[in-house]
Every structure is written in C-alpha cells, then in structure tokens.
Amino acid sequence: MTDRPVVTRFAPSPTGYLHIGGARTALFNWLFARHHEGKFLLRIEDTDRARSTPEATEAIFRGMRWLGLNWDGEAVSQFEGASRHAEVAREMLASGTAYKCFSTQDEIAAFREAAKAAGTSTLFRSPWREVDEADHPDAPFAIRVKAPREGVTVIKDAVQGDV
To answer: Which of 150, 152, 98, 144 is nearest to 124 (CA)?
Structure first.
C-alpha cells in the first residue's frame, strides 16, 4: 500500500456520549490501523468550548474502552493546540495562501439556499478572496485557504486512491 506506517485517528466532539455512528467510525479506523500494524490515535475535538465538557470527554474514553478500542499514546485535545493553529493561520495569511472572509453565516446560508433552489452548485466562493481586508478591520472573519481555482487538485489517498 505505502512505505509509510499507517496512522488513523478518531476525533469525536465531547458534547455528549459516544454514539453508534462515532463508534462505527472508531471501529473502522481502529481495525484498519491494527490490520496494517499502524497506529490509532484519539483526538478530542473540544474547540466548541460552550458545549464541550470534561464529563463528555470521560464518557467517550469509557465508551471506547468498553468497546475494546484502545488508542496509541495519549488522547490529544484539539483546543490545546489552538495557539499553534493560530500561528500557522497567521503565517498563511502573511504568505498569501489564506485570506480573511468577512461573509457572515447568514450570508453563506442564504447563498446556499438560493443555489439549491436554482439547482446550481452550493460551493461558496467568497467575495473576500481578492479584496483588501482594510474595509472591515474590526469585523468577525473566518480564515479560508486560497486553493487554486484553475486545474484539478488530486490527493492520493491510501484507501480510496486518487481523490
């Protein structure tokens, strides 16, 4: 398959108990890693600070252990890496590989609804990609990757092949 060791991960959000869909995903990733003598990592997606709880995190750990799905190494908190993520985001903004999008959630939702009604693509193309952010210096924003608009981007996935 590949010369590199297989590493899979399961990344539940600790907003409640481990549910059947999450358990299924964890099982598939655990089986794949074990079959290929790889590693299975557990990353807790605790960036939703309002809804994430330590009790839910512990419930996920208990559920995984009850299912016999042991993970390699320590479970990782996504929130604990927030400062590194912010640093990389600043680097991407500075290098021009990302941009600040000031479109609101309501604007994006309205675009998607209109596109669905018209039967067109719901792919959101931010109007802020090439606009000077100085027009909205204090407004909330999301950082978006400045992916190429021309050509085809192909990722070689070890399981699915070219995606």
So the answer is: 144
